[in-house]
Amino acid sequence: MDSHFINEVRHAEAQLKQAMLSSDTDQLSVLLAEDLIFTNHLGQRLTRDHDLSAHISGLVNIDSIETSEELIRQIGTFAIVSLKADINGQYDGQPANGCFRFTRIWLKKNGKLQVKAAHASMIA
C-alpha cells in the first residue's frame, strides 16, 4: 500500500467535504468525474450534473458534516473509501439530517483524483 497515495485520497476527501459544505460547484466539478455514478440513500442513481445542479439551485444546503470510521483501501490507481458521516442540512428547504455510510471509489488519472462511483446508505 502506497502511503503517499492514501494521504492524497485523504486530502481529496477533505476537499470534497469542504466543497459540499460551501456548495463550491467549481471544486465539485474537479473532484467528481464527469461520468460519476452515484446511488443515494433513497436508491436513486444520480450523475455529476444532478449533484452540481442541486448545489447551484440551492436545493441542497449542508450545514455540517462530521465524519468518522474512515477506511481506505488502495487497488492500483483506485482507492475505495468507506466512512460514516453525520450530516445536518436542508433539502428543498426542509431539514435533511441523518447518519450515513458512504462508499466512494476514487481514480487517479493523469495525476488527478476524482470520484468515479459513490453509494450512500442511511444508518438507522
In the CATH hierarchy, what is the architecture at level 2?
Answer: Roll
Q: Give the CA-based shape.
A: globular
- Helix proportion: 25-40%
Number of helical stretches of at least 4 residues? 3
Unreliable runs: none
Instruction: Work out the number of β strands.
Output: 7
Largest sheet: 7 strands, mixed
Structural class: alpha+beta
* Overall number of structural domains: 1
**CATH class type:** Alpha Beta
What is the average per-residue confidence, as pLDDT, rounded to a whole number? 95
H/E topology pattern: HHEEHEEEEE
Query: What percent of residues are in strands?
Result: over 45%
And the CATH topology?
Nuclear Transport Factor 2, Chain: A
Q: In angstroms, what is the radius of gyration?
A: 14 Å
Span between N and C termini? Answer: 33 Å
Please provide a written account of the structure.
Helix content is 30%, strand content 52%. It is α+β, with helices and mostly antiparallel strands and 124 residues long. Strands 1, 2, 3, 4, 5, 6 and 7 form a 7-stranded mixed beta sheet that branches. A hairpin with a 2-residue loop joins strand 4 and strand 5. The radius of gyration is 14 Å and the shape is globular. It starts with a helix and ends with a strand.
Supply database-style keywords:
Nuclear Transport Factor 2, Chain: A, 124 residues, alpha+beta, single chain, seven-stranded mixed beta sheet, 3 helices
